[in-house]
Amino acid sequence: MPESPSDAPALLLSGARLDDGRTVDVRIGGPRIEAVGAAGSLTTRGTRLDLRGYLLLPAPAETHAHADTALTGAAGGPPSHRPEDIRHRATEAALLQLSHGATALRAHVRVGDVRGLGPLEGVLAARGSLRGLTELTAVAVPRLLTGAAGAHGLAVLRDAVEAGAGVIGGSPDLDPDPVGHAEAVLDLATAHGLPVDLHTDGDDPFLLDRLTAVAAGHRPGVCLGPCAGLSRLPDDVAARAADRLAAAAVTVVCLPQGGCSGARLRGAPPVRLLRAAGVRVAAGSGALRDLSNPVGRGDPLEAAYLLASREGLAPVHAYDAVSTAARAAMGLPDVRVEAGFPAELLAVRGDGLAGALSLAYGGP
Fold it and tell me: Do strands 135-141 and 104-110 pair parallel, antiparallel, or not at all (unpaired)?
C-alpha cells in the first residue's frame, strides 16, 4: 500500500495475538511499525485499538486477479470493454479484495484482438482511483505473439508496456508456438526490466519443461499459473517438473478458488510436492464473478483455507501462500510484525491460524 504521511498520529494495537502464541502491543507511526512489545508495555498519545481476541498477521496480497472481467457474470451478455466501465468494475473488485485484507493486487488484463488497449486503459485508470488505498499492478496478457497473426499482438504488447503495464504476461498454451510465445514475452521483459507472469495449465510435461528452461534466470522474476494440470501427471513426472521449477526459481501461482479465462483446467497443482521441492508457491483468487467463475468473494483467506483443507498444507504454509510468498512473487517488501517493517497488517478473530482460517471461510 502506498505510504501514508510520516507525521500521522500514532496508532496502538493492544493485546493482539501473534501466530507464535505471544500477546503483544504494536505501535504504528505513519507507514511503518514503530515498536512491538509485551501486552500492556507500550503507550501512545494517538489512537488505541483493543485487539483482544484477534490474531494479527502480515496482510495478504492478491497475486492473480482478472480486473477487466471482474463482476461481469450477471450482465446477461458480453461484458462491456469500454475503459470507463472497466475502471468502475476494477475499482469495485479491488475494494472488495481490500475489504478482505489484500493491500496489493496483480491484475491480469487481456490486450490485443478487438479489445486493443481499452481494457488496460480502464484498469490503469482504476489504479489511479485506488492510489493511497491499495497498490494495483497491471499485467498485460496477449493471446498470440508468433507468426503473422502474432505480429499485431506483439505490437500491442509493446504499446501496453509504454502505457504503464508493470508486468508482461502471456498465454503460451493458446499460441500455436507456445515456446516462441514465451520467448517473445521474456525478450520484451528483459529489455524493459519487468517481471513475467505466464498462464499455463501445466498438463504437458514437455511444454512445461521448455517453458521452465526459457524462464530460468530471468530477473526480476517469473510466475507460472495456475498449473492445475500438474496434479494430473504421474507422481514421478510431476516431481521432476517440480525440481526443474525450483532450480529455475520460478514461482507457481495456483487458484484454489476457481479458474480463469486463460485456463482449461480447474483445481490446484500438487502444492505439497512443489513446496517440498523448494518451489515458491503463491495463491490467488483468479476469476471473480465473471463467465469463467460466476461466484467468488475475492478473499485471500478463503484461498488459504482451501489449500489447508483440500490440499493438506499446514495452516501456516497455506497462509504464507497468500501473504509472504505472494508478496515475494509480486516483488513487494516483506511484512513482519516487527519494528521497522511496513504496517500492512490484518487482524482476524481467532487464537491461531487454523481457527482464524476456519472462521474467515464460513464461521459466525
Answer: parallel
For the chain, percent of residues with pLDDT exceeding 90: 85
- Give me the number of domains the chain comprises: 2
End-to-end CA distance of the chain: 29
CATH number at residue 268: 3.20.20.140
Of all residues in the chain, the percent with pLDDT exceeding 70 is 96
Q: Is 39 exposed, middle or buried (0-12, 13-18, 19+ CB in 10 A)?
A: middle
Both 146 and 244 in one domain: the answer is yes
The crossing angle, in degrees rounded to 10, of helices 83-99 and 118-129 is 50
What is the rounded CA–CA span in Å between residue 206 and residue 197?
19
Cα distances from 247 to residues 55, 170, 190, 250, 332, in angstroms, run 35, 22, 20, 8, 22
Distance CA(348)–CA(315), nearest Å, equals 14
- Give pTM, 2 decimals: 0.93
In which domain, by residue range, is 45 found? 11-58+335-362
288 DSSP 8-state letter: -
**Residue 80, all three cell numbers:** 462491456
